[in-house]
Write a structure and sequence with these properties.
about 300 residues; mainly alpha; 16 helices; globular
Length: about 300
């Protein structure tokens, strides 16, 4: 069996596990960890020891009733990692030429912790018109880009503790998705039911919001269109702008993924030029205050073109 066949078989198996465990994590009066929960988690850790750092952002204090959700989270992340970095499994000497952008949640976690990302999003007012009119009048490429934008904004609000604003962004995003298949279907169902509880299960909503991206990646991975690159571009540009507005030059440089979008995004001329300028700026050891302002201006222009 070839390395690619083994990778596909592994991803299919994990996708089935993800769907089953998402169903298990649906809100109930009482949730109990499955008998083999501890063993499954330990096995996951031992199967990929080099990737433990990718789970570092899951620093929540989980109550016992969160066990199924945590299991689902581990499987989502594990599968997401294999989707994004799967080409590395084809051989020890084969490595992707271009780095895939980091997850939107990981990018934001790397931005200065004293930065109020929710306040920065509110100041940008990128979603004012969209909150009123939704996605109905948007072309397919604009919709994909805005899904990523709204997702990153929801994460920013959640990080700042503005859960109500995060919920509004999530619900707009959720309504735009319309009909979906697994594993996104189970994920969305869980989120909807948690928000419909009285009172809403805010902790569960906030904890699993970062898992939308890997679930979405699995859902659209066979799409030959530009759905995934555009979604990633929406989230990435939002985060680049947030990092720049927070004055976090190191965060900007670490999050730079312009090369990926130049290679994978069928970008209009204005966006392509903007990506090249960003890549040049990020290659510098430092950025002046004027250059940071130019980064913000460039990203804003690209957002206007794509969304």
């Amino acid at each position: 069996m070839s390395g690619q066949d083994e990778l596909e078989r592994y991803e299919q198996t994990e996708a089935r596990d993800l769907i089953r465990l998402l169903e298990m994590s649906r809100p109930q009066k009482e949730l109990r960890a499955p008998p083999d929960f501890r063993l499954k988690v330990l096995n996951k850790i031992h199967q990929a020891p080099a990737r433990r750092g990718l789970l570092a952002w899951l620093s929540f204090d989980f109550a016992p009733t969160w066990a199924p959700a945590l299991t689902a989270a581990l499987l989502v992340l594990s599968l997401g990692v294999n989707v994004w970095f799967g080409t590395r499994a084809l051989g020890p000497t084969e490595a992707p030429a271009i780095q895939v952008p980091v997850q939107a949640h990981a990018f934001q976690k790397d931005i200065r912790q004293d930065a109020d990302l929710g306040a920065l999003v509110a100041a940008q007012e990128t979603g004012t018109e969209l909150k009123s009119y939704g996605f109905a009048d948007k072309a397919a490429h604009e919709k994909s880009f805005l899904l990523g934008t709204f997702y990153a904004e929801a994460l920013a609000y959640a990080r700042s503790g503005d859960i109500d604003a995060a919920r509004q962004r999530w619900q707009t995003l959720d309504q735009a998705l319309s009909q979906t298949a697994e594993p996104l279907l189970s994920y969305r169902r869980n989120m909807q039911e948690w928000l419909q509880q009285e009172p809403p299960a805010w902790a569960s909503f906030q904890a699993l919001l970062p898992l939308f991206e890997p679930a979405f990646v699995i859902y659209v991975e066979d799409d030959n269109q530009q759905t995934l690159p555009l979604f990633r571009a929406g989230a990435w540009m939002t985060n680049m702008r947030l990092a720049a507005e927070a004055g976090d030059v190191d965060g900007l440089r670490r999050g730079n993924a312009a090369a990926y979008f130049l290679a994978h995004l069928n970008a209009p001329k204005g966006v392509e030029e903007g990506l090249k300028r960003l890549d040049e700026w990020m290659a510098q050891k430092t950025l002046s205050e004027r250059e940071i302002k130019m980064v913000i201006k460039t990203v804003k222009k690209m957002q206007q073109i794509l969304g």
